[in-house]
Every structure is written in structure tokens, then in C-alpha cells.
């Protein structure tokens, strides 16, 4: 049963062990990049029966951004309280590449200028048309705190604002799905919340939650099949696919993570593929990320699917089927791809995949979940933002 209702709040609790944003060159990333491409490679290599194993992954543009115990450009010592902010940052890292949002975010006054303490005029230039070759930098925790307070002053989520006393800046307070909604909607990003208030299967299993996420990643909107030659490139391998889908903000009591895909293995075990801000990235995956970046930085015209095809197959070093891109078949690239495949050494692929998997059975440990989903559509016009002030959700039971 699906019900439209005012959203319930899943309050974060302790479970986990800056400056205003400017513009940056896309190659200078604050997190670990290309994880969907790397996971696809590992899944393909670990599959003994490809016809019985399926997975579908989000856009490769999403970055893994970790909570830290030290001061960084994106946040200051947020280890025990910052998971909500980090997941907003991870989702934002992918959104900023979308044509519908990229120019808006690269020049947004709430991301590039000083905040108006009264919140009265910050949207005056909100929807001017800009054309920037650069990406918006991912907002720091401090910027997100200012942004959420600005949204509260503008009338977003009055109940949530009251819960925090209208004050979040410089506070080490946990935030959740509704604060993520407020931050992104204030920027003009179309967001919605889906509530799963209780298990929908036997033994506490969240069957409808898994089905919803699987349908989200499997739906044809912005999937590789809509991109001409890219679809031919991707269809050659087994049922382990990369798409253009945006990641999902995923909340339960105690923690939040970012969903970047779904998987059903040879035994029928169903997993979410996730990025967890509380977990570090292993050395082999960091090395693989750096190797992919070395090609992406040297050849900006390479599509995500060319990169996925290049790094997604078994030895010997794959031949890229795009004759128009001679760089991708050069000796240097072949050497890099060989180093990429060797970077995993004799390490068991399931061990490398384990931090990114959460099974349907493991999800039964919590009763309620929330998902924040970004719609890849035209931004919210300033005059329509009032329609997002009261947060409502779709409730699935």
C-alpha cells in the first residue's frame, strides 16, 4: 500500500565510530572516485555463473566521502555525528554533473557567496542562466549548516527548525532525511522522501524496500540503453550494469548511508550496494581509483561507459571498441589498465566487496527506513519553493 503523508522523522542517533564553497576543476576531487566502475569490475571477476548473477549500479560520478577525526576542507572532526552531512555531500557529488542542475549549482549564491543572515534576498539571482565549464565544489559541513538554517528562515520544515531551535551552525548535532531534503530543495533540487515504516515480509524482511530500490535502478530513465553506442558497449558483459542513475540517501535510526546499486547473487542473496561514510576505502580500491583518474584526466572525452568497458573485463587487457578515441587504445592506457587489474593482486574479491554490501537479511535489524530520492528534472523555480516548505513523503507498507 502506498500512502501520501506528512513525513515521519527517523531521528539519527550515535552509531558511528570549513569554508564556503568555490568553483573547482573537476579533476580535484575531495573523495574517492569511480567506485561504481571498480565494483562492477570486482563483481564481474567474482561471478562464477554470470547468467544467474545480476547487479545494477549508479552513475560513476558519485564520490565516497568519509567522516574524519581531523580537519578537512569539507568538514571538521565529524566522526561521531557527521554521517548525514557526508551522505548529502556524496549525493551532491553526483547531482552537480547533471545538465539540469550543473549550471545552477556552479553559480548558486548560497554556495558561492556569503550567506544573508536574514535569508531574505539570497534567491534573487537563483535561476539566472549560467554556462560554466567547471563544477560546483561539494559544500562543506559548515556550508550545509548555513544552507539549512537559511532554508528554515525561508519557511522550510518549520517543525524541524523548531526541533533544532532554529540553530545548527557550529553545532555537532546529528541530522537526517528531512534536513537533507531541506538543504537540497533550498538549492532548487527536486527531492522526495519515501518512507518504509515497518517490515513488509516474514522474519522482519524489508521486501518492499528492496523492490522499490531495485525498480529505481532498473527503470529505463537515464539508463545506459538510452545512450546509443554506449548501450552496445555495456551489453557485451554479464548482467552487471552501470547506469546514469543518481544515488539514494538512505536513513535508519542510528546511521545513514548512500545506496549506489543493487545485487542478486548466484544463491539468490539480495544486497544493496552502498557507500558508508563511517568506513574507509581499502588500498587496492584507492589505487584502482587513482589509475582510472589518470586516464579520465588525460582524456576528458572518454565517456563513463568507455571507462567502464575499459576497466570492467578480464585479462588480457581489453581492446576498446571505439575507434574514434585512439587514446583509449594507446600503449599507455593498456599499461594503466594492466596496473589496475594487478592492483587487486591475489586479494579475494568478496573481501573487497564486503564493505559495500548490505544484505536484505541485515536490513531486518532495523524496523523503519527512509530514502531521499533526487528527480533529475528541471530545477524548482523560486516562486514554487513554497510547495516544498511542508515535507511530505510517500509511505509504502
TrEMBL record:
GO terms for molecular function: ubiquitin-like protein peptidase activity. The keyword Hydrolase applies. Residues 121-284 form the UFSP1/2/DUB catalytic domain. Keywords: Hydrolase. Pfam families: Peptidase_C78. Residues 1-26 are annotated as: Disordered. This is UFSP1/2/DUB catalytic domain-containing protein. It comes from Austropuccinia psidii MF-1.
